[in-house]
Amino acid sequence: MALKIKVDEDECIGCGECAESAPNTFEVNDDNIVQVKDPGGDEEDTIVEAAKNCPVEAITVTNAAGEQLAP
User: Fold this and answer.
1) pLDDT tens digits for 13-69?
2) Separation of alpha carbons 49 and 51, rounded Å
3) Residue 35: beta bridge partners?
4) DSSP one-letter string for 9-44
5) Is the dihedral of CA 54, 57, 60, 63 positive or negative?
6) How many whole angstroms separate alpha carbon 40 and alpha carbon 46?
7) How far apart, in Å, are the Cα atoms of 21 and each of 8, 18, 59, 69?
8) In the prediction, which pLDDT does 1 show?
């Protein structure tokens, strides 16, 4: 099942915890803001957990049915 991942760039503080937890999905860009590099890069559980670990809840993850999985 495909996930939809959205990063609120205004809220992101660039701590990079998500990129450490799901490195194939998230990366910190040159502006120190997280971006999605591959929405299917890691296992779904790993992506959801990485989003839930965001200290400012800047990452929203929904499934194909529109159910919000994180934060």
Assistant:
1) 999 999 999 999 999 999 999 999 999 999 999 999 999 999 999 999 999 999 999
2) 5
3) 27
4) TTT-----HHHHHSTTTEEE-TTS-EEES-TTSS-H
5) positive
6) 10
7) 18, 5, 13, 16
8) 60
pLDDT for 46 equals 98
Contact 70, 59 (CB under 8 A): yes
What phi, psi does 50 have (nearest 5°)?
A: -60, -40
Predicted TM-score (pTM) above 0.70: yes
What domains appear along the chain, each with residue ranges and CATH number? 4-70 (3.30.70.20)
pLDDT for 63: 96
